[in-house]
Amino acid sequence: MTRAGRRRWLWRTLTAVFLAVIGVLLWHQFRQLDWPEISAALRSYSVAQLAPALLFALAGHLVYACFDLLGRAHTQHGLPVRVVLPRVLVCYAFNLNLSAMLGGMALRYRLYTRCGLRVDTITQVIALSITANWLGYTLLLGMLFIAGLPTLPGDWPLAGSVQRLLGLGMLCVPLLAALATLRWQGRRWHFRQHRFTLPGPRLCGAQLLLGSANWMLMAAVLYALLPSDHSYPTVLAVLLTSSLAGLVSRVPAGLGVLEATALVLLRGENDQAALMAALIGFRVCYFLLPLAGAAVLYPWLELAHRRRQAGAHSSPSQKRHQAPLS
């Protein structure tokens, strides 16, 4: 077997292993869910309740996909928007449901390298995306903590003045990021084998805007499914706090952690049955339905790549009939 043949065989083997790992993780994730309970919760909602939640979920995923468009503008890598968006949407769905290392990192490297991007460019795009997400998070939760939201139980270590001090500390993060872009805009620095260029204040402002919008739309999904006897700022604060608990616990998708935290923080404003139904509906709309879409879209992207590879080895007359990058 020639060297090129061995390389193709190796890549095909790695692709098969990668797809098998994704399949096992998906099966493990879906197996933990109580599908009869999910079905009953969804049937309890009217179209008028579900439609806004689904629209907010779609908007949230699209806003997150725009994080990578900021990276596209900053690195000037030139991939068309129609190529970037489906790949980011797939990665985000896997990121939410499985883990950041799989969806946010490994899958992004795989899909982007297949489009011809260099590793250092992909690393910078991912770094800008992560920064946008957490800049928006710290900005929102910092302001809400200072305002005393959510109302934490007295026996929690963050309750009272500690909550407000932590809020002030969180607000320092986006402030320092903005000052850094003003002071060192365009400065290049190295981390291990990766090179990064610090963005300017305009891009930092776009990161704050999109990062905040992403979390606010996510909270809007839950807000649309809850009964009307609660406020949106409270729901946003509860979601952000629950997400922090899920991050600390390191449970994929915060499964169970998000629900348990929200049940404690919102139990005074809603009955348990309605609250549990809203949390299940939220997970279906924002986590599971996008995951189902990504499970269909990802094999299509793999198949499209295989066809482009086959076209690269075909004759010039055959290449004219190959499908464009999609």
TrEMBL record:
Pfam families to which the protein is assigned, alphabetical: LPG_synthase_TM (PF03706)
Protein topology in the membrane: Multi-pass membrane protein
Transmembrane helix is among the record's keywords: yes
Keywords linked to the UniProt accession: Cell membrane, Membrane, Transmembrane, Transmembrane helix
Principal cellular location given in the protein's record: membrane
Leader sequence segment: none
Location of this chain's protein in the cell: Cell membrane
Protein name: Lysylphosphatidylglycerol synthase domain-containing protein
Record organism: Alcanivorax quisquiliarum
Lineage of origin: Bacteria, Pseudomonadati, Pseudomonadota, Gammaproteobacteria, Oceanospirillales
